[in-house]
Structure formats: C-alpha cells, structure tokens
Amino acid sequence: MTDDDRMDALLVGIDAGCLPVFERLYEEEAIPNIRELCESGASGPLESQIPPWTPSAWPSMYTGVNPGKHGVYGFVDYDGYDWRVVGGEDVKEHSIWSLLDQHGKSSVVVNVPVTHPPEEIDGAVVPGFIGPEDPQCHPEGTLDELREELGEYRVYPKYARGDDSLSDEAKMDEYETLVRMRGGAFRYLAEKHEPDFGFVQFQKTDTVFHEFEGDEEKVERVYRATDDEIGKIIEEFDPKRIFVASDHGMGPYEKYEFRANEYLRDKGFVKTTKGGKGMPSWNPIRNQLREGEDEDTWEPSTTERIAASAAKFGLTADRVGHGLRKLGLDSIVKQYAPENITRTASEQVDFPNSKAYMRARTELGVRINLEGREPNGVVSEAEYDEVRAELIELLRGVSTPDGDPMFEDVAPREEYFHGPYDDKAVDIVLVPNDFEQFLSAHVLGGYFAPPTETWNHKLAGIFAATGEGIDATADVSDAHLFDVAPTIMAAMGIPYSDRMDGRVLPAVDDVDPDTYPEYESSDTTALADDGVEDRLADLGYL
After folding, report:
1. Name one GO molecular function term (predicted).
2. Same domain? 149 vs 239
3. In a designed cystine with 131, which of 127, 232, 290, 395 is the match (CB 3.0 to 4.6 A)?
4. Which of 114, 209, 111 is nearest to 457 (CA)?
C-alpha cells in the first residue's frame, strides 16, 4: 500500500470507553491496541454532554454541535404527548462524513448510532444502534454484500435482554460475534472503497455493563474482542492518523434512585392515570425491530388495551405481579404480567393534565406543560417563568436520605442548549450529583429507592489521537465531545463548520472554519420508519 492509498484518518468509537475501565484492563493486558493508541499519542478524558446517552451524544460527536442545533435529545422524539423512537432523519446538522463529501473526500462509516436511513456519500454507510435489524445501507445492496462476505451480519443480538433460555456463556458468545461483525464489515468495505475517512463504532462495550451489571470477566471478554478487531483494522490499513473517542464513560451507581414524578405529584405538578401507552420508551418496540418489523412507534394491542381498562378499576399489573410473588410464583410473573401489559396496566403520568413532568429519565430534566406549545398546555406563557423558578427552587432543595444533594445542577435549559431546536429540550435540566444518583420517571411510590441499574453512564469518556501531524505531547485534558469533529477535520486539512460548538484540540494544527449550507433533509428520510423501537429496553436504556 502506497502512502497515497492509506486512509487519512480513522475514528474508532468505543461506546462507554473511559480511563477507569481501560486502566483496569491494562493491568490484565487485555487491550494492548487500545493502550498503544492512548499512550503513543495525545489522550485524556473526554467530557460528554448533557444528556450523556447514546442517541443524543453520538450525533453531537459526529456533527460537533449541541442538541439544540442537531435536534436529538434522547431515545424518543415527541409529537405532542405521543412519541416515537428517533432516527437519522431527526439529526438536523451535517455529519463529518457529509462535510468531507463536499470536499471530495470519501468515507466508510460502520455501526454508528442514529444514522438510519444513511446519507448518500462517496463511500459506504452501515447504520447501527437504534436502526432496524435489516437497515437500509448505502450504497444499495451493501447489506447483502456483507452477509455474503461474512456469512451473517446483524445489528442486534439474537436474544432479548432477560431471556433466561440462553446461558451467560451463550450470550457472551453472541456479544463477541457482534463485535467481530463490526470489524469484519469495516475491513471489507474499507478495502472495497479505499476511503479517506473511516469510522467504526463498537456498541457492546457499553451494553455489557447494562446487561451484566459490570461483571468484570464479561466486560474483559467484550473489550478483548473489540481490541482484537481494532488491531486487525490498524494492521491491514495503517491509517495515517487514528482517533479514539467515546460518547460517555461508565461506572457504578452506588447512591439512590430518585423518582422525580412521584416527587412532582406530591408537590402538585403531576397528575396520574391508569391505562394508555405507558411512559415514553423504545422498550415496547425492541422485539419488533429484531424480528424485522417496520415500526418506529407502538400502539397497545387489544389485550394490552383490556389491561389498561382493567387498571382503571384497580386491577393493575403491579398488583397481579405482587400477588404472584407473595405466593412464591415469581417464575410465572412474566407470563401473567408481560412487559407491554405492565406498561398499560400501571399508574403513569397523565401528561395532558399535569403542569410539569419528567417525560423520560434519559432526558435529564423536567418539561413544563406549556400552553401554545403542548397540545393541552395548562401553564400559560404569563405563568411560565414563575412556575419554572418555583420548580428550580424545589428541585435544588432535594436531598437524599443520607443528606447529600440529589443534584449537582438544576438549571434552565438555555444554560445547556442553544439553537433552532432548543424548544424540544426539557425546560429544567437536572444533573445528578457525580452521576452516582439514578433518575426514574415512573410513578412507583416513595421518592427514593436503590438504583434500578447498578452501572450506568458517567460524564468522562475518552479521547486519543496519534499519527502523522499529531502532537503527542499536547494537553487535551479539557477535551469535550463537541471537539471531536472539528479536530478530525482540521487534522485532514479540511475546514470544519462554523456552526460547530467545538474547537480544534491543540494536538493538531488549527484551520479556519467555513460556512456550509444549512442542513436539509434528503429524500431518504421517508424510508426511516424501519422498526426501531422494540429494541431499546433490551439494552437497558429506558
């Protein structure tokens, strides 16, 4: 391979990658390639955004802008009080690869979240997480090529989270298979398209923490497999520059779960109801996606609507499940109170009749039911500032049972978001203290409980840069998620967008930004509804 044929830049995305995880694995000599990348160049923690969750953070990384500019805040988007799972068409700003395409640079992008349907560029795009199991890829026919070349290619595991019919060993085999698929797909497409820019993302490095509560042996297996695939890519293509980045960190949650809507109900802001679709989530759609159905939202079935009606008369799924457990019949709780029936037959927020509420925990905030903005808004514009100020004061005063502040910050949304889509954000941002406190949007009784998940996201991820033109001695300790896109473009000698919120990190020479055309949706957006929502709870996000 001549120098001209080498890839200009490779970005390796490691979901949830962070120094605390890496350093333990260094001691086990489990990730030699990742360690070499971090120690041979400029590296340090990468501060994530608020909210630090996959569907919002990866778009922020690959566009270089905050959610107020790209428009994606969480797993779901809203039409009034109804919701659907987000897709690539919801990201309203140019990606790195689309900007490079405008400069005649080609790209291969594999498994990056929230990229379905794919953009049409010189190169190839294979969408990942939050897309359907059989995603539309670019160019057309790419998925069939991959399956012929690799034998199989899937976005998601063969099994649903919580499936007890498989052993942990079988599940870990599936994890490793998915990791190998990412590396194999990228190598095949990079050889075929000879891209200037490559971007391969590994998702299972995050999911293993959610599903197996940080089990060290299982985490090590996933990271060993990921490191091996990274090594194969580097050996085969010898990129001129290599960047490593994560959307957030990962660590234990050792404090409390705070049930925000239960608190807001007692303070007179939340009204509740029984029945309906349940709280906004991609959980009810995850199995539909895996089975290839073409959905991005969910409506209750006849059985689920009957359960919702029964709930209005007191026969809730919670009561059914509690009764079975008291009789020692835990094994049939799922049979008689399956997940989607539980959603419809449990107490939940009555969004149209509430003054303020938490829609989904991963939004990290409270939304006000504002007249003129929400379909049945009950808070007038004249009351808005007063209601928001009252809520901020109340929430700033919340302390855990140990007497610690629940929140590190309680702030108006404009302190975190700005842009044409800032109105889609929560009105009040809630930042849990040290990200050791867990938030819940469910109405379950009591303000505090042990965290639903014992391992979850932290703000500090990882950034590393090494190779030609990279100053390995540069201080990148204050790197932010928004800095990744402009830094990579500058390293390639390409002007980044002047709409980007990030800066070029000192590890590379700066370039002057340029003004690019405003983002416009392509004709492919009409093809986005390819069955996304049934998978997300499988991975433990909502």
Report:
1. hydrolase activity
2. yes
3. 127
4. 209
Q: Are residues 289 and 197 in the same domain?
A: no
Tokens of 277: 């679709």
Packing angle between helix 142-150 and helix 168-193, nearest 10 degrees? Answer: 120
Q: Is the pLDDT of residue 488 over 70?
A: yes
Q: Are 76 and 54 in contact (CB under 8 A)?
A: no
Whether the pTM exceeds 0.85: the reply is: yes
Residue 351 is given by DSSP the state G
pLDDT tens digits along 93-147: 999 999 999 999 999 999 999 999 999 999 999 999 999 999 999 999 999 999 9
Same domain, 355 and 427: yes
Residue 536: inside a domain, yes or no? no
- What does residue 338 show for φ and ψ, rounded to 5 degrees? -65, 165
Q: Look at the block and give the residue holding tokens 């060290």.
A: 216
Q: Is the peptide bond before 139 cis (omega within 30 degrees of 0)?
A: yes
Task: Catalogue the E-assigned strands of 187-335.
Answer: 197-202, 241-245, 249-252, 257-259, 272-274
Residue closest to 426 by CA, chosen among 84, 141, 67: 67
Strands (E), 177-312: 197-202, 241-245, 249-252, 257-259, 272-274
Residues 6 or more apart in contact with residue 505 via CB below 8 angstroms: 42, 463, 465, 474, 476, 479, 483, 487
For residues 158 and 142, the answer to whether their CB atoms sit within 8 Å is no
Question: Same structural domain for residues 287 and 379?
Answer: no
User: Are 168 and 44 in the same domain?
Assistant: yes
Where would I find the H helices in 345-412? 381-396
**E strand intervals along 347-424:** 347-349, 356-357, 365-368, 407-412
- Domain range enclosing 234: 9-250+456-516
In a domain, 62, yes or no: yes
With H, G, I as helix, E, B as strand and everything else as coil, classify residue 254. coil
Q: What is the pLDDT of residues 466-487, one digit of tens each?
A: 999 999 999 999 999 999 999 9
Cα-Cα-Cα-Cα dihedral of 16, 18, 20, 25, to 10°? 80
381 with 440, same domain: the answer is yes
166/106 same-domain check: yes
